[in-house]
Amino acid sequence: MILFHKAADNFSEALPVGNGRLGAMIYGGTETETVLLNQDSIWYGASVDRINPDARGNLEKVRSLILSGNITEAEDLLRCAFSGTPQSQRPYQMLANMEITYRNMGKRVSDYHRILNLEEGMVEECFNYREGTEQYQMRKEYLASFPMGILVIHMKASGPWISFETLLRRKRFYENAGKLDEAAIYIDGTLGEDGVKFLLGMGVKADGVVSVLGEHLLVKNASEVTLYISCETSFYSDYFKEEVGKKLAAAYDKEYGEIRKQHVEDYRKLYDRVSLHLEGEENNYAQEYFQFGRYLMISGSRPGSLPLNLQGIWNDSMMPPWDSKYTININTQMNYWPAEVCNLSECHLPLFEHLKRMVPKGRKVAERMYGCRGFVAHHNTDIWGDCAPQDIYVPATYWVMGAAWLCTHIWNHYLYTLDGDFLKEMYPTIKESVLFFHDFLIEDQGEMVTCPSVSPENTYIMGNGGKGCICAGAAMDNQILRDLLEGFLKASKALNIRDEMVERSVWMLNRISPIRIGKYGQIMEWREDYEEEEPGHRHISQLYGLHPAHQITVDKTPELAGAALRTLERRLTYGGGHTGWSCAWIVNLYARLSNGEKALENLEKLWKNSTFPNRMCNHPLGDGYAFQIDGNLGAIAAISEMLVQADEDKILLLPALPSKWAAGCVRGLRLPHNAEISISWKNHRAVYCALKAYQDYRGKLYYQGKCHEIMIKRGQTFIVEV
């Protein structure tokens, strides 16, 4: 439960609701009220061809300049010949504000509270109102129903004194507003030339007087009011206007209690799968933050919706920071780190649907920019699956690993679910990503490397004192390639596919550059052991192999694990982890190094320094801060990692348990191979551990130096003697 005793003054105090496609930020209020509305396909502009026609003809020249050490000249050529034309993809936008003006409450209000009810997936607002010697009660509930595809606001008063007028207001890019029917209003529009078309409708059912005047919906002297909000767009259906009408009509036909019950049952099917309890009041923030993150994922990413962008679906701007796109050099991926382990596998599906949407665009980019087969994406994509380079920003723009990293999620989802139909469906996508690198990689010094590339979004110092970003074979590229190729080969084996492409992939995998240790005892970020311009940089790309991958582990690669620890120490010594998402990544990294104290130290830092009052993660932006959801979701993945870690071969029980978490329990975390684990511990020692298998399960569990061999039949539960 997240509680406020006043209406929100700004976005950072508003409370989110959502059903995947539709979202709202609830500010509350007694005299006036604003409800910020979002819909996941409200992106400005149409799909355009941004591929720079001069890229392919200059590829070999760029490569030659990089390999000969003429970095500045290579970067100058890349800016002109490889940047997108135009340089930017499309922005995500707010939908509208719903504005309510109440007529008879004034300031005679007491006992106000506004709550995000995590148990039932809704926001509640309650207060008392005094009129003369009489006191009345008001209760409002705000929910986003996934089964019905609508937002609902329900008001219940202790007397017939609810009177208000409301309208829908959008800052720009809409054409019409007015009466939809005798109890509903609308706005509609087109988001730029040939852009997405939308219709936003709002209807009301009340036991008072209802009317529509102009673009205002009015209610007088009611004791119970239910508002229904629906928005549909041409992105999803040519019949989007009819869909709005159907959804509003379906809502009118149901009592609010039935809609509420259906919503709660649907929501709790997901939410109740996992519980976390940490003894001690000082740990309440961690368990709240954990379940709030799961709430955000359930509310923002459901089958049939778009995947979570930089702000999930909750955005209050026409031009949000970084356009609120899909930044795929870590941020989008981080959004989905907790999906499998936190038992929300269905919420992962929108990412795969969007990945398929990217393939046709990525094929064109691969062929016309690089002369390669397969598909490729750079460090951003948008609603249209645009894969051309974004921005003219050398430290990030000319990086070809975005789609490859996303494709590593395919094998991970299969590993947790063992869904063979899913793997068959997504196999062509991962295959096309691999195919691109069959053509794109070059051989240099006996290794197969990317060229050109960068290490997102860092800058190195060359021996002559100059600065550079462009390189060949950055450490992160090699680590992602290793995951991509291994995932492809495992998928091929699971599907009984053995062909020339599989054979070639085995050959390539054996020629990917190994992880190397540099002069400071750190994991090298580039092929040369450069100094960094910013040693405390927010990206820690060279540690991809530690997390999210399992290429660096304490038990199997202790020397590399020590170098990873040294890398982290250097980053933090120089001020790293200063953004929410970066701090969340650091928590995951320390958890993988079995350092619970450092993991908790950085989790507390994230909570104190990078969290708004409404628990949403903040990101420094100029003189202020902007919401970015990746910190929230990266953090809950990290909390899971502190309690249990698992890969294809083993389970580690309580691998990074900090001293402050002396006692607690967690139920329902997922494991690879379609299993589930629940753990209880006291005095820092496990006292109970149970595994439930949804298919026949065989594996090893390690705890305090002891290995437990586990074999479970489908549907059975196995109690580990800890």
In short:
With 722 residues, the chain is an alpha+beta fold. It has 17 helices and 34 strands.
Protein topology:
Blueprint: E1 2-4, E2 15-18, E3 22-26, E4 32-39, H1 55-67, H2 71-81, E5 96-102, E6 109-117, E7 122-131, E8 134-145, E9 150-157, E10 162-169, E11 176-181, E12 184-190, E13 197-206, E14 209-213, E15 216-222, E16 224-233, H3 240-252, H4 256-271, E17 275-278, H5 284-300, E18 326-327, H6 331-335, H7 338-341, H8 349-370, E19 380-381, H9 394-397, H10 402-417, H11 420-440, E20 442-444, E21 447-449, E22 460-461, E23 467-468, H12 475-494, H13 500-509, E24 531-532, H14 558-573, H15 580-592, H16 596-609, E25 618-621, E26 624-627, H17 630-643, E27 644-646, E28 650-653, E29 664-671, E30 675-682, E31 685-693, E32 697-703, E33 706-712, E34 717-719
Parallel strand pairs: 28-32
Antiparallel strand pairs: 1-6, 2-3, 3-4, 4-5, 5-10, 6-7, 7-8, 8-9, 9-16, 10-15, 11-12, 12-13, 13-16, 14-15, 17-29, 18-19, 20-21, 22-23, 22-24, 25-26, 27-28, 29-30, 30-31, 31-34, 32-33
Helix pairs in contact: 1-2, 1-8, 5-17, 8-10, 8-11, 10-11, 10-12, 11-12, 12-13, 15-16, 15-17, 16-17
